Amino acid sequence: MDSWRERSVLVCGASSQIGFFLLPELVRAGVSVLALSRRPQAALEGVTWLQGGLPQAPAAANAAGSVCCFAPLDALAAWIEAGTAANLKCVVATSSMSAESKQASSVVAERGVSRRLREGEAAVARACERRGIAWTILRPTLIYGAARDRSLTPLARRAMRWRVFGLPAGSGLRQPVHAADIAQAVVRAMDGGAAGRVIPIGGGERLPASEMFARVHASLPVRTFPLHVPAPLIHLGARLVPPMRGALTRLQQDLVADNGELERLLGVHPRPFRPDRACWGL
Question: Label partner for 217 (CA 20 to 30 A): which of 26, 54, 208, 242?
């Protein structure tokens, strides 16, 4: 069987935080890289940028032999079902641990997110299996590292502007995973060792939510006032501010991943959570 390195690789959602680390890895591997993004991107040596998105990808995307997808799973499934990528042999896509963690949320919209993720995973698996395409889906926990996330990076940048850092109390465990470690797992998954599986991927360290925020605070290059938010105030906020109810309630819940399959099948051992200013683009 030929290696994925002998075929072109299409990266969907290439401007994402995982794509930021994956594209150079693929270039170093010597493969032909097609990078799909909805917006124009700066030139990158060894990468051919395609503008557009799934499922109506540009015709050039159909030449890919492998796909790494960080775009919505339902769009990926629809593109595979269309059968226009006749040479496609391998698909590696990311979902989210929210597929599990938000399944029993008290917030209706969050339960909907969980349902759509699980339905998307199942749709990709069905589409691939009908066409004889090997597939692997990774479920990351909280992603950081490329200053492109919508959780920790905005928090760090607001603190830089206001010189105040909110430190909420939270005993629930967190397992932030660096985007570069996910990129490594994507490359390893294309070798086929985890075909037909949905694999959780978390960071190499589990720590209380309060400690996670404290480490983000400590990583900032300027002094910011630490504003501690006690648990009673968090509980009150969860009752009075419905849009924040899910996030505030989860501060006391464990949001972690079992890396057993990741380590056993892909040989990936994610780093502990040791953020620095570069993680937030500072």
Answer: 242
CATH assignment of the domain containing 76? 3.40.50.720
A 10 A CB-CB count for 91 gives: 29
Segments forming the whole domain that contains residue 151: 4-280
Helix, strand, coil % in the chain, rounded to nearest 5? 45, 20, 40
The count of domains in the chain is 1
Q: How many helices (H) and strands (E) does the chain have?
A: 10, 13
- Tens of pLDDT, residues 242-260: 777 878 888 999 999 999 9
Q: What is the mean pLDDT of residues 107-118?
A: 93
Q: CA-to-CA distance for 223 and 249, rounded, in angstroms? A: 29
Q: Which two tokens stand for residue 243?
A: 């849009």
* Whole-model pTM over 0.70: yes
Size of the chain, expressed as the number of residues it contains: 282
Tell me how far apart the alpha carbons of residues 142 and 221 are, in angstroms, rounded to a whole number. Answer: 22
**What are the residues facing 91 on neighbouring strands?**
67, 135
41-83: pLDDT as tens digits: 999 999 999 999 999 999 999 999 999 999 999 999 999 999 9
Peptide bond into 55 cis (omega under 30): yes
